[in-house]
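Bit of a strange request maybe. I'm writing a small parser for structure token strings and I need a real example to test against, not something I typed by hand. Could someone generate the tokens for this chain?
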Amino acid sequence: MKPESEALDAAGVEGKSTRSATPESQRRRLLSALPALVATSIPALALGLHDADELHSRTRKITDSVVHGGFPGVMVTAHTGEQFNFYQDLLKDRLVLMNFMSVDSENELPMTANMASLIKGLGEQFGREVFAFSISYDHANDTPARLAEFARRFDAPEGWYFLSAKPEDIVALGYRLYRTAGRPRQRMNADLIHYGNVKIGLWGAIPAHITDVELAVSRVTSVFPGKPPSSEMRRAGPRRLNGDGPVYDSRDHCRVT
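Reply from user aminoacidic:
Good idea to test on real output. This should exercise your parser:
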């Protein structure tokens, strides 16, 4: 793939097929699209880059270094001042919510306000079964002290961590969450809330603009562990091979044997 096309992916540009486009036309489309996309493109925001070639080069080096089987070994600093290994100390075996944000972008892209609504909707499950991580892509400005003040604005409950890390590490985490079949998805934008059951590797994402909190909660809880059956297991559907009884039965009549 041409560098310009890969840079489209890295910057979050999801355009039409470029097979018939000339390199020059690809470059023109990319350069015209980047200013509008910089508000949500994680690599561009975290690395502070607008040049397409440099953005491609830096992002490629970072994603090549990421272990494809799991989260990279990234160190993060919380709004409490504590430092953690992101996967080992915070994610491992948990039910989690994650988003990318910055203090200065909250008015334009209210990620934290939407995350707060979702956390409130989870009720007592949050902080005991579910934890949240809001990761700043503005390493230079979002210090632990500033993130702590920001957390107080939203009455962040225990279990909600506001984190900062090196720009390269932010891109590496974004690559892990947006990867499809070993490659970054075409969009790595900060307008999603990710949720996951880390223990079994089941993940999903919802748009950050939450209008129906109950629906958003139902999406998030879909990856939670199921409750054990409280009664005898029943089977429905076609009859087992070489079994007796009707060819097809319902759950009310066909017991597991």
